[in-house]
Design brief:
The chain has about 300 residues and is an alpha+beta fold. The protein contains 7 helices and 9 strands, in the order αααβββαβαβαββββα. Strands 2-1-5-4-3-8-9 form a 7-stranded mixed beta sheet. Strands 6-7 form a two-stranded antiparallel ribbon. Strand 1 and strand 2 form a beta hairpin. Helix 4 (about 165-180) packs across helix 7 (about 275-295). The relative contact order is 0.10.
């Protein structure tokens, strides 16, 4: 017989009453209790992994994220952004592309400028001057090489010119006086007069005509063919009336330019009717200085 302790306040059960039976549980209730027991067992599991995870949560073991031999390796570059590997690679490619573009563009511009300079030189420096053989005002045969070694200023005209030729020859004489007044340019330029009217301008006529102008002038004449060759070399235009009677006066139409040639016989510059003597002297002095700065001597 079971010994049960009862409080004094509750009456003892009847002696002959059988024990109370619990009501029968249906299937659904059993399944729910089974699930609860399974869940409770998993929560109370003491496997090493779960125990270690619980201890880490409770602070008994340090986390791997914060120090220790198992510390997580930090990234050298961020995964995204301008400092990431893709961002740095893009920057380097862009920099190389910009450098290549500006380098090639600079070279292209340099070549274009060089080509333009060549075109300007070819246009601005025509082939003026060349070989010729004439007779000077003293009757001596003279070639173009007789004036090599000095700058020379060449003018084409004719002795019967009423006004233009005398004005131009006077202007050349004034420019020579300015140059000769400077010790650096004195006796560096030889003035030359070549007639475009060889039929009337003999050596004697040329010599008499030039007495009116600067004493340094050397006058040249020759046959029609010789004069034509010299005019062609200097690209000088000249023309006289087609039919002229003997002893008939006439005018010769011709170019009005003074041609500056260097000591090598190379064309340097040309001065038209509108250029004054001062301008000519200053420009010639500048050309002489450039020639000397290149190591050349006069």
């Amino acid at each position: 017989m079971l010994n049960r302790a009862y409080t004094t306040d509750s009456p003892p059960p009847p002696k002959d009453q059988p024990p109370k039976e619990e009501p029968a549980k249906n299937e659904e209730t059993k399944k729910e209790e089974t699930k609860k027991e399974a869940g409770t067992g998993a929560a109370n599991s003491t496997s090493p992994e779960s125990a270690k995870g619980k201890e880490e949560q409770e602070g008994r073991f340090p986390s791997r994220t914060f120090g220790g031999p198992e510390k997580r390796k930090e990234r050298l570059f961020p995964a995204t952004g301008p400092l990431s590997l893709p961002g740095i690679s893009l920057f380097l490619l862009t920099a190389v592309g910009i450098y290549y573009y500006f380098t090639t563009e600079k070279e292209r511009v340099r070549r274009e400028r060089a080509n333009k300079t060549k075109k300007v030189e070819s246009i601005g420096t025509p082939e003026v001057g060349g070989a010729y053989e004439l007779v000077d005002h003293d009757g001596n045969t003279v070639t173009d090489k007789a004036f090599h070694g000095k700058f020379h200023l060449v003018y084409f005209g004719f002795c019967h010119c009423p006004d233009i030729c005398p004005d131009e020859l006077d202007k050349i004489g004034d420019a020579l006086d300015i140059l000769d007044a400077n010790s650096k340019t004195k006796d560096t330029v030889q003035p030359v007069f070549i007639t475009c009217d060889p039929q009337r301008d003999s050596p004697e006529a040329v010599k008499e005509y030039l007495k009116q102008f600067h004493p340094k002038f050397i006058g040249l004449t020759g046959t029609v063919d010789q004069v034509r060759t010299a005019c062609k070399a200097y690209r000088v235009y000249f023309s006289k009336p087609p039919k002229v009677a003997d002893n008939q006066d006439y005018l010769v139409d011709h170019s009005i330019f003074s041609y500056l040639m260097d000591p090598d016989g190379t064309f340097v510059d040309v001065y038209g009717k509108d250029r004054e003597a001062k301008y000519m002297a200053e420009d010639i002095a500048r050309r002489i200085e450039i020639f000397r700065d290149a190591g050349r001597k006069l």
